[in-house]
């Protein structure tokens, strides 16, 4: 006698209904506004006060020195000398390569004039100084870490790295993954048309950094290094805001890193952050369409 085994059938997985373009635009706008809201909350916290005390210790460099710093370390955030870092509770790691900039000092000298009389003059000098970025330092044991960003640890890149790498390749850029020194996460090199991403990042942080660097490229931030140096706070605010919004649309949260990053570069100016909305959202939707081309097709069909 032949028997037939009865199999229990599992219900087929039902794909989540696709959001309309209008729904995605509304979600993106809400995500961008949430950055401002979270920065506002951070601004009122003891954490922000501690960070401000830390940040106020740094010298404001001339545009020429900022360009020198960026030419040597494109992603440098805060730089100081070896002893200065120790005074701030951080130690420059052994073997780190210094960033060279010009200092400024004056020296009094006495020179004889045409009558043989001594005349005091002040000579201006521009000595070469060695400074290090915060990414080249570690918190000294027993000191408090006063930074306001935390690395993402998620184990998925949500398909972002391959998709944006392919897009940038099509635009004439190359994406390289390297062992970046000093804890750098990534940077864009306009001269070589390269986006460089650190090998040390988790898959999720790699994805966020890819969005950030792609935003720099799409928004024209890297077209003129002098322009970038002059408006760096605004441009970093825009690129990281794009990363936060796109990540939210994809389905992961970067606030542990993005909120502090944006607050730092924007000086917690909530109105400045809100003022970037149009450019940020336009770029976020452009990247979202790269990641999910069906969105672009749907948008075109709706407009037809």
Concise summary:
This protein has helices spanning 21-43, 46-55, 63-72, 82-87, 160-170, 203-218, 225-230, 232-250, 255-266, 270-275, 277-291, 293-303, and strands spanning 79-80, 90-92, 99-102, 105-112, 118-125, 128-133, 137-139, 174-178, 186-189, 194-198.
Summary tags:
single chain, about 300 residues, alpha+beta, 3-stranded antiparallel beta sheet, 3-stranded mixed beta sheet, 10 strands, about 50% helix, elongated, disordered N terminus, disordered C terminus
Structure overview:
The protein is α+β, with helices and mostly antiparallel strands and 304 residues long. It has a domain of 197 residues. It is built from 12 helices and 10 strands. The strands form 4 sheets. It has a 3-stranded antiparallel sheet with strand order 1-6-3. The chain has a 3-stranded mixed sheet with strand order 8-10-9, with helices on one face. Strand 4 and strand 5 form a beta hairpin. The radius of gyration is 25 Å and the shape is elongated. The relative contact order is 0.14.
User: What is the molecular shape?
Assistant: elongated
Q: How big is the Rg?
A: 25 Å
What is the end-to-end distance?
A: 64 Å
Strand arrangement, major sheet: 1-6-3
Unreliable segments of 5+ consecutive residues:
1-15, 297-304
Q: Helix and strand succession?
A: HHHEHEEEEEEHEEEHHHHHHH
| Helical fraction | 40-55%
Q: How is the main sheet built?
A: 3 strands, antiparallel
Total DSSP E strands: 10
SS-based structural class?
alpha+beta
Helix segment tally: 12
The amount of beta strand, in percent, is 15-25%
């Amino acid at each position: 006698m032949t028997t037939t085994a009865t199999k229990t059938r599992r219900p087929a997985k039902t794909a989540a209904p696709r959001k309309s373009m209008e729904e995605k635009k509304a979600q993106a706008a809400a995500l961008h506004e949430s950055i401002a809201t979270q920065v506002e909350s951070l601004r009122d916290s003891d954490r922000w006060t501690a960070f401000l005390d830390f940040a106020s210790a740094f010298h404001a460099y001339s545009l020429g020195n900022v360009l020198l710093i960026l030419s040597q370390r494109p992603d440098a955030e805060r730089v100081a000398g070896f002893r200065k870092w120790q005074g701030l509770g951080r130690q420059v790691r052994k073997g780190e390569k210094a960033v060279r900039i010009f200092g400024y000092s004056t020296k009094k000298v006495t020179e004889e004039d045409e009558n043989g009389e001594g005349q005091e003059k002040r000579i201006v000098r521009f000595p070469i100084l060695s400074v290090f970025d915060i990414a080249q330092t570690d918190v000294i044991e027993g000191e408090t870490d006063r930074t306001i960003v935390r690395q993402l640890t998620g184990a998925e890149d949500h398909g972002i790295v391959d998709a944006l790498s392919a897009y940038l390749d099509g635009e004439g850029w190359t994406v390289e993954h390297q062992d970046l020194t000093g804890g750098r996460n990534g940077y864009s090199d306009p001269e070589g048309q390269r986006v460089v991403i650190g090998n040390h990042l988790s898959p999720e942080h790699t994805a966020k950094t890819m969005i950030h660097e792609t935003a720099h490229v799409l928004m024209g931030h890297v077209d003129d290094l002098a322009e970038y140096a002059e408006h760096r706070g605004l441009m970093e605010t825009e690129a990281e805001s794009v990363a936060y919004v796109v990540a939210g649309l994809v389905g992961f949260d970067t606030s542990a890193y993005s909120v502090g990053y944006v607050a730092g570069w924007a000086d917690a100016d909530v109105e400045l952050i809100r003022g970037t909305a149009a450019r940020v959202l336009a770029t976020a939707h452009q990247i979202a369409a790269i990641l999910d081309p069906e969105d672009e097709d749907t948008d075109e069909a709706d407009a037809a």
